[in-house]
Write a structure and sequence with these properties.
alpha/beta; BirA Bifunctional Protein, domain 2; 3-stranded mixed beta sheet; 11 strands
Length: 201
């Protein structure tokens, strides 16, 4: 299946990236090919539709509200984000399967770096020894799924202390670097793993 795949090397401002993604979503709704985008953001705190104000610990931070699912999370340099616009009208109209394949992408990608991880039915995302390494947040409109997921590679985890990430105050956050693993060829390995599983969505 033909896919428009984009990789940005420099961190991009969140608001600009969202405007670009929303335009792509409308084009996909109108029949253009699916879109997948690997990128990073400068330090940005975003709030999904289920967030609560008491999840903000440092009241000085600027919070960007978004229409994705989920609660508050952090994006910062060293974290890889995968945004997408995928037309489920041309695939399986199955949100649970979409989430499952995203989980598989992340789990298989982490295996390339010697990291064993797992999904959690109660807490969406991917976990390594009860520490969260990847977050998932999507929205579906007219059976086009968009937003995406993020994976902590070598980002500054201290910045998570300013929030209760994803509403999980009893969970810790980790990264590939924090697990003592190398983090070479991230973009190439991530793209290859995405393309391996995209046909199953």
């Amino acid at each position: 299946m033909d896919i428009d795949f984009k990789i940005s090397k420099k961190p991009l401002v969140y608001e600009g990236a969202m405007r670009f993604l929303e335009k792509k979503v409308e084009k996909v709704k109108n029949g253009e090919k699916d879109f997948i985008w690997i990128l990073e953001h400068p330090t940005t705190y975003t709030a999904g539709i289920r967030y609560s104000k008491n999840e903000v610990i440092d009241k000085k931070i600027s919070l960007k509200k978004t229409n994705r699912g989920g609660k508050i999370t952090l994006h910062n340099p060293g974290q890889k984000i995968v945004y997408f616009a995928i037309n489920l009208n041309n695939r399986k109209k199955n949100i649970r399967n979409l989430i499952k394949q995203i989980e598989n992408i992340i789990i298989e990608f982490l295996k390339l770096y010697g990291i064993k991880s797992n999904a959690d039915r109660k807490n969406i995302g991917i976990w390594v020894n009860n520490k969260k390494i990847a977050a998932i947040g999507i929205r579906v409109s007219r059976w086009v799924a968009y937003h995406g997921f993020s994976i902590n590679i070598n980002n500054n985890l201290e910045e998570y202390k300013k929030i209760i990430p994803c509403g999980l105050d009893n969970k810790k956050i980790t990264s590939i670097k924090n697990e003592g693993k190398n983090f070479k060829k991230i973009d190439e390995n991530l793209k290859r793993t995405i393309l391996k599983y995209i046909s199953k969505i």
